[in-house]
């Protein structure tokens, strides 16, 4: 799992956002603890296999996706492949099988992996950030409404505005967004996909993309060879010519 507190922070691209407690210099000297961040801040995700598998809370549509793919492919392998293998080429079930396992593999990788959840701030970090925000906003009197919480940072010479997430208590990096269904901020958030049963973000985008691509190939492949099967049968056993009318 990528969210371990004992794992050294590999890169701190957004150093302006990092508070002192998450400094990469401090982490290696800490005593190694076995509490993971997902155990402290699980959001609304479900975790299995000691945190190696994470999914959204509602996974009903994901099982429907699996059943749809397996039933369609199963019918193709059971009823079309034996005829096509003996009358055309045995490569058809072989290619179909490889495609099917690739599709299922990519679906499971996209569904079970961490989409790029940004760890929430610890109470210390949140309090520190609150103090910084209050100091930069100036004294607030009664009836004073604080401005929306944003922070500007310069990335590659471009000024980028970071928004504050009130749930996660962090300034979100650019293109990160809070998934309301999983209740977590996700880096490079694309969307929450109920078909896959997970958010699609930085860490599982490639698996999601390969899943969609290979599923398109599998669909076209099955459709093309089902049509071929029907046509071949039609030619092999042409329907009897009706007798001419008397
Ligand atoms: Zn958030
Ligand atoms: Zn989500």
Describe the model:
This is Palmitoyltransferase. The chain crosses the membrane at residues 61-79, 91-110, 207-232. Residues 161-231 form the Palmitoyltransferase DHHC domain. It is a multi-pass membrane protein. Its EC number is 2.3.1.225. With 246 residues, this protein is of the alpha+beta class. The protein has a domain at 45-118 and 176-236. The protein is 41% helix and 14% strand. The chain is built from five helices and nine strands, in the order H-E-E-H-H-H-E-E-E-E-E-E-E-H. The strands form four sheets. Strands 3-4-5 form a three-stranded antiparallel beta sheet, with no helix packed on it. The protein has a two-stranded antiparallel ribbon with strand order 1-2. Strand 1 (46-48) and strand 2 (53-55) form a beta hairpin. The longest helix is centred in the last third of the chain and has 32 residues, at 205-236. The protein is elongated and about 100 Å long. The chain starts with 36 loop residues before the first helix and ends in a 10-residue tail after the last helix. The structure holds zinc ion (ZN) (2 copies). One zinc ion is lined by residues 165, 167-168, 178, 185.
């Amino acid at each position: 799992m990528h969210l371990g507190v004992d794992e050294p922070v590999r890169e701190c691209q957004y150093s302006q956002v990092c508070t002192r407690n998450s400094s990469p210099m401090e982490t290696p000297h800490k005593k190694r603890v076995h509490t993971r961040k997902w155990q402290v801040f699980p959001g609304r995700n479900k975790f299995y296999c000691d945190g190696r598998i994470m999914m959204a809370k509602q996974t009903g549509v994901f099982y429907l996706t699996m059943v749809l793919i397996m039933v369609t492919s199963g019918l193709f392998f059971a009823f079309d492949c034996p005829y096509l293998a003996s009358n055309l080429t045995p490569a058809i079930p072989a290619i179909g099988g490889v495609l099917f396992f690739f599709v299922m593999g990519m679906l499971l990788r996209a569904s079970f992996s961490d989409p790029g959840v940004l760890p929430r701030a610890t109470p210390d970090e949140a309090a520190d950030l609150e103090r910084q925000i209050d100091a930069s906003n100036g004294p607030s009197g009664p009836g004073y409404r604080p401005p929306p919480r944003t922070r500007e940072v310069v990335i590659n010479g471009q000024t980028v505005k970071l928004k504050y997430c009130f749930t996660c208590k962090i300034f979100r990096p650019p293109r990160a967004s809070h998934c309301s269904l999983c209740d977590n901020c996700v880096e490079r958030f694309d969307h929450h996909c109920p078909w896959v049963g997970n958010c699609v973000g930085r860490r599982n985008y490639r698996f999601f993309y390969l899943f969609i691509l290979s599923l398109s190939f599998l669909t076209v492949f099955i459709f093309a060879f089902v049509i071929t099967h029907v046509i071949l049968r039609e030619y092999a056993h042409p329907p009897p010519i009706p007798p001419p009318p008397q």
